[in-house]
Amino acid sequence: MKPEPRPGRRVTEVVVLTTAMLSFISFGRAAAIVLCDMASTAWYIGGIVETAIGPAAPWFILAVLLCAAPFLAMYVEGSAMFVRGGVYKVVRHAMGGTLAKVSVSALMFSYALTGSISAVSAGQYLAGLLNSALPRLHIHWTVAPHLFSVLFALAAVAYFWRQNVRGIEESSDEAVRIMSLVAVMAVVIFVWSAYTIHVRGFRWPTFAPTFTSESLGWFPPGWLGKLGVLVAFGHAFLGLSGLETLAQVYREMEAPKLKNLKRAATTIFLSALLLTGTISFLAVGLIPDDVRLSYANNLLSGLAMSMVGPHWALLILQTFVVLVGVLILCGAVNTSIMGSNGVLNRLSEDRILPEALRHLHPRYGTTHRMINLIAAMMALTIVLCRGDVYVLGEAYAFGIIWSFAFKAAAVLVLRFKDHSKREFKVSGNIAFWGREWPVGLATMFLLLLSVGFVNLLTKKIATVSGIAFTAVFFALFTISERLSRRAHAHDEHREKFNLRSADDLSIVREEIERSNRVLIAVRDPGNLYHLNKVLETHDSETTDMVVFTSRIRKGLGLVDETVSMDNDEEKLFTRVIEAAEKHGKTITPMLVVSNEPFYAITQAAQAVGASEVVFGVSAKLTTDAQLERLAMTWGSLQTDKKPVRFRILGPGVEHAVDL
Amino acid sequence: MSWFQKKPAEPSVESPKAAPPERVTKGLKVASILTSDTILFPAAGQDKAAVLLALAAAVCEKAGISDWNSFLAKVQEREQGISTTLDTGLSLPHARMDGISNILAGMAILKKPISDPKQADLSIRVMFLFFSPNRQDAFPMHLQLLRGVSSLFQPPLIDQLTASSSPAAALELVKKLEA
Q1: Which of A1, A128, A292, A640 is the residue whose CA sits 20 to 30 A from A375?
Q2: What is the CATH number of the domain that holds B79?
Q3: Residues 22-81 of chain A whose Cβ lies under 8 A from any Cβ of chain B
């Protein structure tokens, strides 16, 4: 006996792709994430650079910070070309996989150190505060700064490891809160410093760097001459940490993407210049020479205690500076975990790392195994450095400079190799001999290369540990890539998704909150013109965009299926996610199991409460036949009088009908 | 108001504002395009093709069209495409015809459901056949009629229609529901 017709019972299984419900962040949030790393250097760069090159440190820190502008421009150009960009992607496209693996190995070295140095420095600040505050509270204990900073750093890494496993939303919230506090602290310090300068005057630091045998390393003193400037510049280069994170967060940046990227880059540049640059000068200009070196590991504490004012007020200022410092330095730990997670994700997408590393956390949908690996690497570095910030700082610049040098070379090579239209170009391009010569980029590359080579000679610790680390990581990446490629010889990159299933379409209502709702039906990953059009013209702030596909099974008596996506569906939604990322618009992807595609679309549109349903041009059906069938199913299932607009979009084609 | 667009050129993203269905279908009642003469109660045992043939003949005869075979051929051609049968038990064959200026419609009520040859798991209890003018400006009305008929012929009405005893009674049921 035939089953009775069951109107409205065509869809039996609904799957919402929770991992893919991308949330995008504003340029302010993105800038806060990057600044948590870059601006945090203000707390330790002065001490490290002065130890290496003497009181001229602020001038070279300023020079390095001014260079952030063209380097940021270079990152903007690279990111505009590759949404999921960063050093690895850009270098691979320009110069091939081997150099890309070398560059990313150097970058991972810098990420392992940026988290570690920040966490250890935070521990040093806290130890310094405790040691100056406890005697005044008649507690005669002293804490061992190095041991305390190691323990504190391990706790900070553990905390942010947990936060990152839980996802980006929480992480960017933290960054914004931290940067707001830093802004307040900066205002307090600047105003108090202005008053102190008014009372006591200000001593400008000398321009001439003075090197120690340690800071020259293997560099022959006889070569110093004019190269001394490059040596000093190289010692201050750690002021540029965190820029790579900008490329990593670009994927999550909201529309208009490029405009927001430029805004974020400008915000980062100005904030870092103002904060780190000014504080470096104030530290040398206001802290007396005889006490400054004792504050090498916590220079801002020294600055606070050198202001004009009653001692209790200075102690309060020091406490404030230290607490804010601890927060931003811990924020840098967070940034480095996020940044290196992004880098490892790009490697995994390219099958450089084993597929198992991309496993998603069942609850939070994050790549938790990668985050575990990064946190473990940082913890190991912290234990190995035994709380010495200077050692970490010296080693740190290696990864930054070489990853920048590779990136600059790659962006430069792409100018000659890839003639597609650029959304953004680093300036300094000269038209000559019938073509454009990227003089600005070339200059940047030559500068980075020179500093990189000079640093190889001057920074023994960095050279030995950096080369060793890079070699080990390069070998690991190469072996892993071979094994992974052998296992997935013909596979292309597929996004990983967490799936949430229900036997009722109402599940999707939990994911939508805006009054305007559009359903976009997709099927063919090669035919997403209509999705791109919708993403281009709709604002995800005001419109929920539900991207829908149906898995069609024969027969009305559908049986429950195990909810997992097949290869075609994974490929389709990977392209969908890439499109959403490119436009920086939030979407809700949904898959339903049904036995009739038009019923599935209609039911989904009604469940969503869509005012607009958009399709691509079908390869099998005429648009008239598509619209006729839609009109029938819409009518048969319509439960209210709410009008809906059906649109069929294709290159040069637009059909729209209101039903 | 132009609420339907078909443009070969670069699509415009600015679409005209949607009008509610009531306004668009204003003046077009399903009962108004049916008459007792075009409502049939086919004998049991007939298949879909036979019912369609009888219905097309009745609709054309009522409209004074002698060449009803070309109408039948057109609707049969459309039936080869995407299904016109719905879960509700309504079969909605239709075709856009040259040479007519109004909608021509008829309805067959099947006391005993018949199978849809394209979808064996669906039963047809009412068949509503219509022809609309093959003009671009008439296509919106064509789609509105598809939506309107599908919306109107829900299982409760279909139950009542299959229980009705005459074309006039069936027509009255449709009128009553649309009133």
Answers
A1: A128
A2: 3.40.930.10
A3: none
The whole-model pTM stands at: 0.74
Domains and CATH numbers, chain A: 11-17+497-658 (3.40.50.620), 27-95+104-469 (1.20.1740.10)
Q: Is A634 on the interface with B (CB under 8 A)?
A: yes
Pair type for strands A653-658 and B5-7: antiparallel
Burial class, A99, CB count within 10 angstroms (exposed 0-12 / middle 13-18 / buried 19+): middle
Q: Which residue in the set A7, A628, A636 is minimally distant from B143, CB to CB?
A: A628
A653 interfacial to chain B (CB closer than 8 Å): yes
Residue B1 included in any domain: no
- Please report whether residue B84 resides in a domain: yes
Residue in A636, A637, A641, A646 to test binding to B, most B beta-carbons within 10 Å: A636
A655 to chain B, any CB pair closer than 8 A? The answer is: yes
ipTM of the complex model: 0.85
Q: Determine contact: A504 vs chain B, CB below 8 A.
A: no
Full domain range(s) for residue B141:
39-178
φ, ψ dihedrals at B25, nearest 5°: -90, 5
Helix axes A311-349, A27-38, angle to 10 degrees: 110
From B11, B21, B140, residue closest to A641, measured CB to CB: B21
Alpha-carbon gap, residue A491 to B118, rounded angstroms = 38
Query: How many structural domains does chain B have?
Result: 1
Bridging pattern class, strands A612-616 and A516-521? parallel
CA gap B45, A510 in Å, rounded: 49
Of chain A, the end-to-end C-alpha distance in Å amounts to: 36
Is position B64 within any domain?
yes
Residues of B in contact with A636 (CB under 8 A): 86-88, 90, 150-151, 153-154
The residue to which tokens 């916590």 are assigned: A298
Under a CB-based contact definition with an 8 Å cutoff, are residues B21 and B141 in contact?
Answer: no
* A135 touching chain B per CB within 8 A: no
For residues B63-84, average pLDDT? 90
Contact assignment for B86 to A636 by CB distance below 8 Å: yes
| Rounded Cα distance, A377 and A333, in Å | 12
Q: Assign A165 to helix, strand or coil.
A: helix
- Domain assignment present for residue B117? The answer is yes
pLDDT at A489: 55
The yes-or-no verdict on residue A305 having pLDDT over 50 is: yes
Q: Which amino acid is at A250?
A: Y
CA distance A597 to chain B (A): 11
Neighbours of A559 (CB within 10 A): 9
List the single best residue of A628, A649, A655 to mutate versus B (max B Cβ within 10 A): A628
The CA R_g of chain B, rounded to the nearest whole Å, is: 17
pLDDT at A487: 64
Helix (H, G, I), strand (E, B) or coil at B114: strand
- The one-character DSSP state at A436 is E
Q: Is the dihedral of CA B149, B151, B152, B153 positive or negative?
A: positive
Give the distance, in angstroms, between the CA of residue B155 and the centroid of all CA atoms in the same chain. Answer: 16
Q: Does A647 touch chain B (CB under 8 A)?
A: yes
Chain A CB contacts of B148 under 8 Å are: 635
Q: Is A552 on the interface with B (CB under 8 A)?
A: no
Backbone dihedral angles phi then psi of residue B122, each to the nearest 5 degrees: -110, 140
Show residues of chain B in contact with A556, CB under 8 Å: 121
Q: Running DSSP on this structure, what letter comes out for residue A348?
A: H
**B12 exposure class (CB count in 10 Å sphere: 0-12, 13-18, 19+):** exposed
pLDDT at B8: 35
Report for A76-85, A182-191, A484-493: range of highest mean pLDDT: A182-191
Instruction: Kindly report the nearest CA distance between residue A529 and chain B, in angstroms.
Output: 12
A649 touching chain B per CB within 8 A:
yes
With contacts defined as CB-CB under 8 Å, which chain A residues touch B11? Answer: 533, 649, 652-654
